[in-house]
Design brief:
This protein is an alpha+beta fold and 467 residues long. The chain has two domains: 10-239, Glutamine Phosphoribosylpyrophosphate, subunit 1, domain 1; 264-433 and 453-461, Rossmann fold (3-Layer(aba) Sandwich), CATH 3.40.50. The strands form six sheets. The chain has a seven-stranded antiparallel beta sheet with strand order 3-2-4-1-10-9-11. A hairpin with a 2-residue loop joins strand 9 and strand 10. Helix 9 (263-277) crosses helix 10 (293-303). The protein is globular and about 70 Å long.
Length: 467
Amino acid sequence: MSFEINESCGVFAIYAREDDVAKLTYYALYALQHRGQESVGIAVADGQESVMLKDMGMVSQVFSERDLQSLKGHMALGHVRYSTTGSSFWENSQPIQVPRRGGSVYVAHNGNLINTDELRGQLQAQGVRFRSTSDTEVIAVLLARSDADDVVEAAKEVMPMLQGAYSLGVMTEEKILGIRDPYGIRPLCVGKYMDGYVISSESCGLDIIGAEYVREIAPGEMAIIADGELRFERVMEARKPSLCIFEFIYFARPDSVMYGTYLYHARKHMGMSLADEAPVQADVVMPIPDTGVPAAIGYSQASGIPFGEGLIKNRYVGRTFIQPTQAIRQLGVRLKLNPLVRDIRGKRLVVVDDSIVRGNTTKEIVKMLRDAGASEVHMRISSPPDRFPCFYGIDTAIRQELIASSRSVEEIREFIGADTLHYLSMENLVRATGRPREEFCMACFDGRYPIPVPDEMKMAKCRLEAV
């Protein structure tokens, strides 16, 4: 895949007295590993005490069988992370733990606050010393310093202070909370598991442990799990629903359900619409694995052009965009994807991917296909041009690095070296989701941010190179 931005984090929490919550959380985080590969953590609580283990790396690298056996309790909170606010080092790994009223409060966060600096400055003026640079610690400290006796009341007090995108898992020695911001930019859902309940960023985190999907946590709502019971409370008035459209395009796993829709079906419809919008004479439709597969299948079915694999993915190589330099990203493409030369040579290819951000990875892939003997390469992208940076938890480049912010489609085609290039229209993208456009944040395409962004953040991330 040629998507060169980092993904959202993954949050998971569970209450279950009849099973091993640490192992269940371990497997669920495996299912959510695609949402973050820099660090992972699990905290457990038994009603009186709590303990946590976290480290840099992926789920399989951090936890051993012995580690999981040492995490005893009937509640757990887990997290997989990539960097949004704060750099990638151990102190920023999650959950974040802060002492509160003889115990602890743990916070796992998916999203990004846009008023972190203001809140951090206020707390530092009160004598707080922070151990990390993440906005998650700011949330945890606010919850810990609340005068409210109960964490539920503390959350009601703190959440209105936060501006930005946040889906939170919060745990104390006695309760688990799941909270979404009033716009619902990042996903969070609830499931039923045996004698308890589960909170997960995606429904695939429920499926892997056999939990039954209940529903999404609504924007501005809090799910409370205590003593094996589940209830919901409104924390803030819901604003315009603004789920990140890239959850449908790329971020979430295709077997997850959002807005009542299997994302696999939505992505396949995106591909079918691509075939209607931009037909071409070709011999084979091939995806950039893995995220381009559903759309490529849809394109093949709608066009009648056979579907085939032209690139084989090395699944033991991490995602290329995790690496910090472009040179390593380009090397990562060669390490990660290998062309099937005999199936490519002399063929006219329709190549389907989910997006083009900087364009360098796509350019490398097109060159790789040409070197393998492809006679024509027709790029089809199952999203509109990505022109604006994200401020709500997706680590995009600054605007000057987004290729579509300063180049036309024809100029991008020329840069990547494809014979033709077509992006899916906004209209057909929205149609594929089955929901109205008003229920999504599409700022990366149209620049309309649902939550006002401070000017200093825009200047830092949206600056254009001087002409």
